Amino acid sequence: MRPSLQSLAQQTYDVLIVGAGINGAAAAHAAVQQGYRVALLDAADYGSGASSRSSRLLHCGLRYLMPGGPLTTFVRHPGRFLDVLRTVRRSMAVRSAFVLEQPERARPIRMHYPVYRDGPYAPWLVDVAFGLLGALSDRKVALDYKRTPAREALAGNPFAPWLGNKDKLAAIASYTEYQFDWPERVVLDLALAARQLGAAVRNYTRVTAMRRQQDGWLVDVSDSITAQTATLHARAILNIAGTQVDAVNACADVPVGRKITGTKGAHIMFRLPSACRGQGLASVSSVGRPFYCMPWRDLHFFGPTETLYEGDPDKAHADTQDVDFLLREANSLFPSLGLERSDIVSTWAGVRPLTYDPALPMGHRSRRIYDQSDEGMPDMFSLSNGSLGAHRQTGKDLVQALRQRVAPSDPPQAGPAPASPIPDLAQILAKEDVVLLDDLMTRRLGLAWDAGHGLDQAAGIAAVAAQSCGWDAARQAEEVARYEARTRCLYGVRS
Q1: Contact of 441 with 484, CB cutoff 8 Å
Q2: Which residues cross the membrane (predicted)?
Q3: DSSP bridge partners of 38
Q4: What is the pLDDT of residues 11-53, one digit of tens each?
């Protein structure tokens, strides 16, 4: 049951975790297991930020071996290459752990990478890249890598009929990748498991001010819907608010350095030929960045873009420039399909909370855990660039950093593990802190990701939810209208 602000304020917490995305939820679950008294808060709904609007890929780390330019980039910057190897090792480790521990949340897909004779990476370099991936893995979850010569690939690969530049194709490299199905559910499972262990967990609760006291932090919070307020006391704070990390830090009475660079990743969705179902294709865009055609349910999406973004992350959408770029790239990849703007089923975009680095205008892709004691904020930590796939390891690493400063008040405790079965609507309404219809449609039921976004079901679901949520007829209509407007804004095709 979602606690009241007043009940939250009645306890002193070892750690207040700000941000209930996938990394915040993982940190809360790990911390409470280690005996910490935990409060987990989010200004919006659980998993409603970058966690829900990514490429939804539990990737092996191949993209990190594509430097976004010539391979001499790594020669000129060996430190960056070592960072990449560490990131790849972590990607392979968390991929293996998640697939083995929660196979029902990881959907295997067969990915294909066309290798062209005039492309940025020669066939032998692709072999080396996959050799590195294998060498850095625990070999418990296979990549199933295979490089097929052009003639054989053109005869049997599901994407071959629509590929461009067939005369320059040297081979197609294929491997097994995994997709989150779906990340919002993973966030909820972790947050609710933390609650079962004793954590105070609450959505739609915004931090408005933080003041350091001798024995910890006083944190003013406000209900994002009702504007009710309360003050919480915590010995330490983990700021895992993603794109809002700097905004949360700014709530303190001590100025600190910038931590986040936001880049937008936009995607467009199509219905491709049925032969491609469950199959994906990895490529490199015209600007030298990884570009995917990924299966999603019975659709496929293309993306992502990568552009600097300094607006409101909650309003990030695929704008005209994004759609034009993605459509050009899709047609360059598959010219025979002749994809047009009218063929787009939907779009979406998210903002990556990359690590701020003044030397890298587009941000740094290495994860950082900042101990802000040196900035005059003792027992305060922030996270940048916490990836979707590495959430469990990131949660453990955050708790390990916390332990260097603050000891837990209670002994460690075991379980429960995050739940596996998808609960029915009645259980969701009773136990999963539904505040808005969008919480149900987008994150609890996943209907926003269907071709029709669940728009034809919204009114019926709102009527069922009304009694549990205390909505009268006017509020029901308001919730349906809000969901429809938000869906068209965030997932529609802009002219």
Answers
A1: no
A2: none
A3: 15
A4: 999 999 999 999 999 999 999 999 999 999 999 999 999 999 9
pLDDT in tens, 324-381: 999 999 999 999 999 999 999 999 999 999 999 999 999 988 899 999 998 999 999 9
Range of the domain at 173: 107-180+261-357
For residues 453 and 340, membership in a common domain is answered with: no
Show the low-confidence residues of the chain (pLDDT under 70).
66-75, 77, 416, 419-420, 494-495
17 belongs to a structural domain: no
Of 357, 390, 411, which residue constitutes the final position of a domain?
357
- State which amino acid sits at residue 324: D
Task: Measure the CA–CA gap between 26 and 130, rounded to whole angstroms.
Answer: 29
**387, two tokens:** 């990836």
Query: Are residues 353 and 477 both part of a single domain?
Result: no
Task: State the chain's maximal CA–CA distance in angstroms.
Answer: 71
Give the number of domains in the chain: 2
Nearest to 201 by CA among 38, 44, 33, 52: 38
Peptide bond into 304 cis (omega under 30): yes
Same domain as 464, residue 321: no
Q: Is-contact 285 292, C-beta < 8 A? A: no
Secondary element (H or E) of residue 117: none
CATH number of the domain within which 111 lies: 3.30.9.10
Q: What is the CA radius of gyration of the chain?
A: 23
Shared domain check, 471 and 336: no
Per the rule left: phi > 0, alpha: psi between -120 and 50, beta: everything else, 338 is left
What residues contact 247, with CB distance under 8 A and at least 6 apart?
Answer: 241
Q: What is the DSSP letter of 439?
A: I
What is the H or E stretch that residue 298 is in? none
**Are 348 and 433 in a shared domain?**
no
Nearest CA to 13 out of 167, 223, 272, 198 is that of 198
Q: What is the pTM of this model?
A: 0.92
Count of CA atoms in the C-beta half-sphere (13 A) of 451: 11
Domain stops at, among 340, 357, 374: 357
The verdict on residue 282 lying in a domain is yes
- Provide the CA 279 distance to its chain's centre, in angstroms: 21
Which residues have a Cβ under 8 Å from the Cβ of 102 and sit 6 or more positions away? Answer: 186, 418, 420
Q: How far apart are CA 487 and CA 495, in angstroms?
A: 16
Which is nearest to 177 in space by CA: 301, 278, 300? Answer: 278
Distance, in Å, from the CA atom of 83 to the CA atom of 93, rounded to the nearest integer, reads: 15
Does residue 51 lie in a domain region? no
